[in-house]
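JOB MANIFEST
job_type = single_chain_structure
chain_count = 1
residues = 146
[input]
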Amino acid sequence: MKKRLNPNLSKIHRSYTVEDVAELYGVHKRTVRNWIRSGLPVIDDIRPLLILGTDLRLFIRQQRKGNKRKCKPSELYCLRCRAPRKPNPETAKFVQEVGGIGRVFALCSACGSKVNKYFSWRRLDAIRSELLVESTVSTKTHKYEG
């Protein structure tokens, strides 16, 4: 499983060696060297390689932003497919949760696994019109008859 790295761990006024970065983020030194090959800037090519804290922070933020997948109002995120997918319309259900949050869950139309999406109650009408969702009572687990 991929770690979600916190870009704010690196201090912007500090320089880091490859080993320092690996220890700071709990990754292997080879991972940091792969980051350098894929675009993480270094101060110069003289050993030990030094990485500015500001460059490291920006690189990790860009990596995290690049991994995000934006869902359209009619799509839910499928964890198995790792992509936004249209849900199977017969299985879509809506649960109102506390704090102004709602959740739509259904089965993925591509692979059949569970998909879900959290959203604000204010967007309920838009979600319902796109997905034709029926409301249900909030429970810990939701089983699908198939």
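[summary]
The two ends are 30 Å apart (CA to CA).
Helices lie at 18-25, 29-37, 53-66, 124-131.
exit_status = 0
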